[in-house]
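lol forgot to send this yesterday, sorry. struct tokens for the thing we talked abt
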């Protein structure tokens, strides 16, 4: 298994040198491999990339939006997060990568029921039949609050092996700005430590993977604090693992760099429950990365 930032660089180098050149819907070919797995021991520091400066405020804002089920693009833009600018609910503007359609997609505010909507209000289409028996079903939509179920189980029944949160809802895919790339995450507790694993159906290794690792590192950190647990191991399972050909210069620049000491994550002591967290409550100490490396996202 690959470990930490050094493992990430090893993976990126392997894909770049040995991957299969593959066409895809974006019109920009990738170098791809079928699967990969990376883990990180949280006791060694917070997994925020050091071989290029990460926009960690953007990471924190996006996570706050997910934790609150936000589906408005403007909400993210108002807080300086531009990750979702190019996408929108395909029922409002059908997907296309021509200039005219891209402009219409960017102008539309509705993102549809993306990650946070599924985490906090997963609607399985069953309706009211299970509403009275499940305390985590929201009675206005009959959707399930998966995050709250995990928060409570960590405190009441930490040995539970059913603490799973799914973003992949087949009944909602046609309305989502982008079908979820990270489709599922799950936690378990062993020897007083909270461990988190997440599964990705598809991952842009240069741009997306570092953001996703930091995202889930934050979730692990916040859940552990709320449940009075130590922080354990973070593991990512990846499918369709790729690098875009138009990122060649950026990739080669990063591969010449060496990892530095990881930062420490610090969260306001007043925030215990992850559901009350906002992006300004967390910061990173001793973060001294190499300069940022810019690359264009493939839509």
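and heres what i got for the seq, position by position
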């Amino acid at each position: 298994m690959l470990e930490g930032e050094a493992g990430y660089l090893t993976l990126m180098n392997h894909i770049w040198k040995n991957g299969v050149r593959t066409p895809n819907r974006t019109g920009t070919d990738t170098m791809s491999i079928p699967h990969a797995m990376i883990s990180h021991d949280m006791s060694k520091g917070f997994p925020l990339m050091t071989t290029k400066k990460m926009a960690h405020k953007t990471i924190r804002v996006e996570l706050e939006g997910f934790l609150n089920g936000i589906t408005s693009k403007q909400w993210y833009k108002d807080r300086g997060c531009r990750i979702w600018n190019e996408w929108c609910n395909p029922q409002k503007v059908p997907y296309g990568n021509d200039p005219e359609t891209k402009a219409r997609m960017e102008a539309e505010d509705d993102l549809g029921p993306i990650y946070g909507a599924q985490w906090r209000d997963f609607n399985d289409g069953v309706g009211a039949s299970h509403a009275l028996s499940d305390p985590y079903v929201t009675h206005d939509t009959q959707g399930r609050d998966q995050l709250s179920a995990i928060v409570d189980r960590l405190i009441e029944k930490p040995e539970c092996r059913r603490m799973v949160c799914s973003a992949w809802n087949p009944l909602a895919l046609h309305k989502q700005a982008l079908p979820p790339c990270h489709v599922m995450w799950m936690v378990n507790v062993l020897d007083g430590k909270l461990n988190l694993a997440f599964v990705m159906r598809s991952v842009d290794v240069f741009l997306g993977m570092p953001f996703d690792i930091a995202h889930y590192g934050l979730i692990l950190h916040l859940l552990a604090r709320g449940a009075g647990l130590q922080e354990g191991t973070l593991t990512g399972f990846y499918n369709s693992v790729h690098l875009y050909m138009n990122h060649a210069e950026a990739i080669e620049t990063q591969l010449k760099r060496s990892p530095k000491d990881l930062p420490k994550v610090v969260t306001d002591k007043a925030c215990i429950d992850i559901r009350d967290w906002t992006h300004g409550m967390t910061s990173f100490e001793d973060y001294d990365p190499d300069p940022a490396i810019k690359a264009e996202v493939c839509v």
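Residues 2-69+145-261 form a domain with the Thymidylate Synthase; Chain A fold (CATH 3.30.572.10). anyway ping me if u want another try
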